[in-house]
Amino acid sequence: MKQIVSWLTALVLLLSCLCCPVSAIEVGSMRYEIDPNTGEKRYTAIQIETAWGQWEWIPVYDDSGQVKWSYVCNEDGDYEWVPAEEAPTREEVALQLQARKTAVEKRFGIVIVEETPERPLDMQLCQIIHLEKAIETIPAALYEKARTALTARGKTLTILLGREDDPSVSWTTAGQYSPYDIMIRLYDVTPEVFAHEYAHLLHMTLLNSMYSAAEIEARWTALNQGAAYGGAFLKDIFITSYASTAFEEDFADSVSYLLARPEMIQELSLCRPDAPVIRKLQYARQLLSDAFGVPLSQFPDITLSQPSSWARDGVSDYQMLFPSGVFTSLGTPFHPGYQSGTTRQDFAAAAYELAETVWAQRQDSWEELYPQYPMDQMHQHNPFTDVTSRISAREAIVKLFLMGVVTGKSADSFDPEGAITRQEAAVMLYRLCQALELPLLQGESPEIRDSAQCAVWALESVRAMCSSGIMTGVGDSRFAPTGTYSNEQSLLTMVRIYRLFSETV
Ligand SMILES: [Zn+2]
Fold it and tell me: How many structural domains compose the chain?
């Protein structure tokens, strides 16, 4: 069972009671009233974008009380406002709902039961579409094997759909699994909630009858390394605080992360490959694979990336010098690994971190060195239209641009997600050294046999980076200027430049 608090619902209820008979509530781009008798929402006005990019409130009803705009569920399961004359009729929605429900039941071998059939048909239709999307996130091979196993036991999964915004409760349940009647009850129809309840089904109904339930629990709990269930939330032991409440919930939450939100595992910033939560995920992955005969490749890979042997010392140095650096959390599941090519934005962010570290040692800062570019006006100086995603990287890129370290791929594009080439890295580093006034070692200029493949704008930088030992060739006196630069190579480079700086202090 998974519970969420709907404070908003409680607040809305409270407000509507205090200001009887009805009160207008504004949430996002909609205004609505709550009928004090039925608790139903009645939309009164919506905000739409005009051709001039302005947002304008328009009434849902005209003066005579006729509906002008209808809130409908579209093919993708999203609600949208359409002019009333374009909205499907109630009968059309009813047909759509029936057809979709039958199709989803057939596709997944389930029975769908609507808990409150009197609620708006659009809402029911959208929920069916959300359910279909939620089930799709379970690896198909696993779902089919589990379905076969249920059928062999003469069972069918029932999905009971409840209303998502039930105003009669302030504490609401997102979902629930009942092993007695093989029924998943969903209020919040999202992939995460479905995967959690589905994990209970896999565990309680199937795995526990295929293996010894006590053995699964004992093995799982042993991986906690002594941490008990019941409130303690230790990020590297329990995947969420809810998971720490009980063994069954820990199992269900972990499996739901594995199946429906592998990208979230990265956000847990699990740096230790031996962390209990990682080992529990690996165990769950293996258990599901063995039990249902589904190849491991069907599940997200949670093996951790390890640095190459030649980079290990450099990685430790980097983590010490840049405790919250771009490359410090490499090796966590689903994070690009040590051997992956560095993106242009990661390289820029790491280069700027290096600059900040050098400035800090010199008791300098951006504010003192570049007072003409105050932080709150930084967006005005951003020439790149494609640098919008990660705030930390965007700030680094704009600052490096203002320092003359980066110029972008064109006047208005930086290609942040593109892999940086070795010659681009050389140019960025050479200009960074110049901007930081770091004296480069003038070693013997090494022979570069493939220098003809170097771009004209990069040749000087490539020579300078090679002769100073900041970058090295790829062997056989070649530089491979258009080859990629891996994350472990990038971080070693940052360490080398930092060392160069500290030797000159
Ligand atoms: Zn649960």
Answer: 3
26 shares its domain with 62: yes
Q: How much distance in Å is there from the Cα of 274 to the middle of ligand 1? A: 26
Would the pTM count as exceeding 0.85? no
Supply the mean pLDDT for the chain.
Answer: 84
In a domain, 108, yes or no: no
Q: Are residues 382 and 425 in the same domain?
A: yes
Tokens of 488: 């472990």
pLDDT at 95 over 70: yes
Please give the distance, rounded to the nearest whole angstrom, from the Cα atom of residue 217 to the centre of ligand 1: 15
Structure confidence at residue 50 (pLDDT): 62
pLDDT at 375: 81
Residues 354 and 374 reside in one and the same domain = yes
505 pLDDT exceeds 70? no
Say how many Å lie between the first and final Cα of the chain, rounded.
Answer: 60
Strands 24-27 and 2-5: unpaired
Tell me phi and psi for residue 138, to 5 degrees: -75, 130
Centroid of ligand 1 to alpha carbon of 174 (angstroms):
10
How far, in Å, is the centroid of ligand 1 from the Cα of 250? 8
